[in-house]
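Morning F.,

Quick status update on the modeling queue. The single chain you submitted on Monday has been processed. Sequence for confirmation:
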Amino acid sequence: STMALSLSLLGIGDTKGPNTFGPVSDLSRDYSGLVDRLVIEAARRFVWPQLREGASPDSREPSDYVLPDGGEGTAFDWAALAFAVVINGTYDSPTAEMTPLPYFLKYAVEQAGDDLDESGWVQFFLYQTLYCCDVEKPKSEIAIKRALPIEIQQRLHLRWLDKIVLHAQPQGSEKLQKDVDEALRRLRVPGALINCSAGRPFDEQHCWFAGHLLKHKKLALEYDYYQPLGPGRPKASGWIALKTRLMQHFGVNVVTIHRCHWDTLDEHQKDAQLTHILSQFPDLEEPEVPKQPVYEEDLKYRMSRWARKRPMVRPQVTGVFPDVSTIY
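Structure tokens below.
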């Protein structure tokens, strides 16, 4: 599980590629699909039915097979394995009917037990898996959601902002992000919000944060700090790749700035690069929202009505609002 999660976060071993290292003239072997193979191996050992000892290999009798219980792993192991599947977007691998993801979630909750609130990254992985599944809508969506009891889902939802994401998402800014922020200020780009949350219009709370979000352009700037696979061959990390997929569902375009390229530019070149990027995304016109009529109540009528209900009290208005009235 740790290997699958680490490779997924690095962006190595996914099914899309490229996953070869070195210069073009001397490439390494291709590691595409490595994470998927690790997940399937875990499913073969701990999820899918296993043949009982002594049974015939060709047997199709249900009694000759036993279902694993996932008791050999910790809650973190199963939650990390589930989130690795989400990062790679292989919810329905090898098929929607045989996907092991619901079992990974089920095992994680069982191992966490009553200590889920103190489980650290486990609750982060579980809630993000549910949210990403709800956004990307895989074929196995219903099975994935049913793997977590509704009371667990509700508990994660209520604790998300102040107890889970606050300790998991990076707070503040890093060198590359801060350098781009200074360039945006030099170019006087309005509305460039740093570490701004994004989500669907109907989300009660957001789960993801953009490095910089320009709402008037529907554009997010993300920052990749990893070394390239080879000279001139950068690849976004798995975290950035997942965020890009989700932002597209939010209606936001994503541009990834790689540190290996950005650090080679001087100040004028950085400004020129940002100017070129921003020029590709024109400002969007905000739809006109009809103004609601302002409710204006006749102050004298209001106060006289109030006085009629309390004939023994005489109000003396000393301001616009009744809150600043002096009562004698």
